[in-house]
Write a structure and sequence with these properties.
The structure holds two protein chains of two kinds. By secondary structure, chain A is an all-beta fold. Helices cover 0% and strands 55% of the residues of chain A. The mean pLDDT of chain A is 94. Chain B has no helices and eleven strands. In chain B, the strands form two sheets. In chain B, strands 2, 4, 5, 6, 9, 10 and 11 form a seven-stranded mixed β-sheet that branches. Chain B has a four-stranded antiparallel β-sheet with strand order 1-3-8-7, with no helix packed on it. Chain B starts with a strand and ends with a strand. The chains are: A mainly beta, B mainly beta. Chains A and B meet through strand 4, strand 5 and strand 9 of A and strand 5 and strand 10 of B.
Chain lengths: 110, 113
Amino acid sequence: QKEVEQDPGPLSVPEGAIVSLNCTYSNSAFQYFMWYRQYSRKGPELLMYTYSSGNKEDGSFTAQVDKSSKYISLFIRDSQPSDSATYLCAMSANDYKLSFGAGTTVTVRA
Amino acid sequence: DADVTQTPRNRITKTGKRIMLECSQTKGHDRMYWYRQDPGLGLRLIYYSFDVKDINKGEISDGYSVSRQAQAKFSLSLESAIPNQTALYFCATGGQVGADTQYFGPGTRLTVL
């Protein structure tokens, strides 16, 4: 079993829809939780960063962490075609090493 | 200019050849990493370095070696390339105290024939 599980999708939604992405993990030592966005043929770009449990909002993005369930989520409100990308979750146990999910490919249809 | 640069961006080589991928950063970060990305497998850590004198193996280091020439430079070598090493390779840096965030370069697409 992988340490971080992420449904690869693909996920296709109409413009303006809410995109919901999630990851589950098995390592209870994880404390830092991140979401990266990767456009085709580009490097991953840090999107959201959360420490421990709770919610964090940044523009149209909301990240949620539920450590009791070992479950993290990313929501994209009012999605746009420019949000079409692969979204990777990543997490760390405060050891400066990241464990990544496999990534979910999202397409927002105009 | 990009904070993390990788050269070359694309490379096609033959089985058995030695290949070096280079990474440079202007972020002033101490920590540097090499990953490979394969479809369906996500990013997997090959090697990492927390400073110039510190080199550590990641989860898939077999067949690879690295060199940290300076704080800003971290190179990955494939001593004898094999087709199984065809992948997208990313360099990343990290440097915030108390945070594990990493910042990635644009990647090198390597094809081993």
